[in-house]
Structure formats: C-alpha cells, structure tokens
Amino acid sequence: MIIYLATLLLSLVSIAVTAVLIGVLSLQEAYAHIKAVKRLLIDALIAFIGIDMVLLVRRVSPLDEAATIIAIKLIYSLTLFAAATVGSAATVIYRKPKSYTLKDIYADAVKFFPFASFLTILLIFFISDWIVPLNVELRSCPTSYTDLYVPIFESQHLIIFSVSFIAFLVYPTAVFLLASYAVENVAVSRDLRMFAIGVIGVAVSSYLEAFFLVRCFAEAVDIIRIPCFIAMTYVFRRTTALQSFREIELREYMAHLRRRLKPDFNRVLLDAVDEGLLALGKELHQAVYQHLEVRKGVKREELPDRLDDFSRALEEIFGWTAHALEEVILKRLYARLGLEFKEGEDLSFKDYVDIARKALHKR
After folding, report:
1. 350: number of Cβ within 10 Å
2. Which end of the chain is more exposed for a tag (fewer CB within 10 A), N or C?
C-alpha cells in the first residue's frame, strides 16, 4: 500500500511540476527562431504530461487487456512525438534561420538532411508501433493494490525501442553539441552543452520506461526525468536572456518595440467599424458584412484595403444616412487612436481614415 501511494504521489508531482514548467516557458519572452524553440519545448513537455496521465489512469483504474495495449502504444507514440519536438528544437537552434515566421522556420529545419532522416526514422517506428501486435499478461504488482496487465515485449519490440532510443539520444544531443561549438559566447556554449546533457537524461528515462512497464513501476523514471526538465527550462530561460539582443537582428527588435508601442491600425479600424455597426444591432451588423462579401467580394479582414467599396455598400444599404454612420465609425476610430476628429469639406470616408493612418505613423 505504501509503495502504491508513493508511485501515485510521484505521478501527481511529475504532472504538477511539468505543468509549472510549461507555464514558466510560456511567460518567457522570445523572438524569431527562439520563439519556435520555446513552442517546441512546450509541446515536448505536454507530451510527457500525456504519458504521466496515461500511467496515472492505469494506476488508479486498472485497464482491461485491450485498453492496456492501446495505453502502452499511446505512451510510445507520445515518446516519439517528444523526441521529434526536441530534435526540431535542436535543429532550429543550430540552423538559426533568418525568417521570423514559424512556418518558414520549420520549413528550413526540414531542409536539413540529418533532421529529415531523423524524422523519417521516428515516423517509421510510429507506424510500426501501431502495426506490430503486442501481447499483455495479467501480473501481480507490488506497486498496485490489484493485478495489472503488463506488456510482453518480443524481439521486434526490442528492436523498435532500441533503434528509436538511439535516434532520440544521438541526434538531438549531437546537434546541441554542434550548436554549442558554433556559438562564440562562452556562457551560451556552456548552456547548450548542459541542454545536451538534459536531453540524454530524458532519452535514457524514456528507454527505461518501456522496461519498467513490465515491472509495474514506470513512474520511477520521473525521478530522472523531472530534474532534467527543470534544468533544461532553467538553461533555456538563461540562454534566451543572453541571446535576446545578440542573436536577433536589431531591425526585428525595433519592429517588435513599435508593435508594442503602437496599435495595429487595421485592427483598430476593424474594431471601430464593428463598434459602429453594432450600435445598429447585431442583425444589421451581420447584414452589412454579408452584403460586402456577396455583392462586393470584400471580406471583413480585407476592408481596410477596400474602403471605397465599404462606403458604397453603406450607401446601398442605408442611403443618405450612410454619412452619419461613417461619422460614428470615424469618431470611434479617432478616439481609439487618441486623435482629435475634425470634420472637413470634400473629404471622403477613406480620406479621413488615411489621415488617421498617417498621423499614427508619424508618432
């Protein structure tokens, strides 16, 4: 009973600590390719939470034979997913792509032949995991108050586990080490080597987990895994702080500051339009956008670039009262931007919007 409670507590602590680390990483400010690395590390931690949740359910509510097989295959699939995300993070750090969009950053990583080979290996084993049959047997476990189904690993399973473990161990570790030697900053180089050590610990714990499932105490690997997670999170936060101004080009950081100090004009304009139309009621609000899309071929997000079509649509719907509605929208727009609205002669709705746009850019 004591051993059962200890393993149960270990699973709960592991889930709680990993969730906290995800929160810590989420709050860490990052730019460009470092932002992609942060997302990948969070995805890896989420995968390991999934593994702990499966083990916890299996511990609290013993599964039948079929459910146990699915649970074990799911654990292995989540491990492969975590390996893929860690390998992706290592590749992005090593490649340091110049693009600032996540899509382009991931596309650059896939072009790296060793990484593409690594992903291919993991994909093959992922498919094999669900194709190769797995048998289980009911066994009395000292860590459970009742008998549990445990896997019976045969030669093909051992080959799959061993080769995937080698891939998980070798590729991310090697790439992190290569990245550490490519960095001139001594502190960053040291941190990347520490990250490589953390990856080794996580890979070893994942390999042991498969065999500990047979002995009913797979949760024991969290004793290795959690300190590695903590160390990797700490290293990432410290390295990110060092690299924020060294690795990221100045123009991107300045653009980031401008985005934070200035509101996005198109977003503010759309909000002002929404606010003005909603004053007429939800039905008319929806009717205007529907009219724009059906009659003018203008979607809501395209409205800032097609203001003349928007004005004509308002005139078609509201007639001579459209001018009053435009004035309401303009006053809301100017108020949101902190500008003073002054009505002039011979100025169209688009002219007023352009004046506001120029005033914002001059700040």
Report:
1. 14
2. N
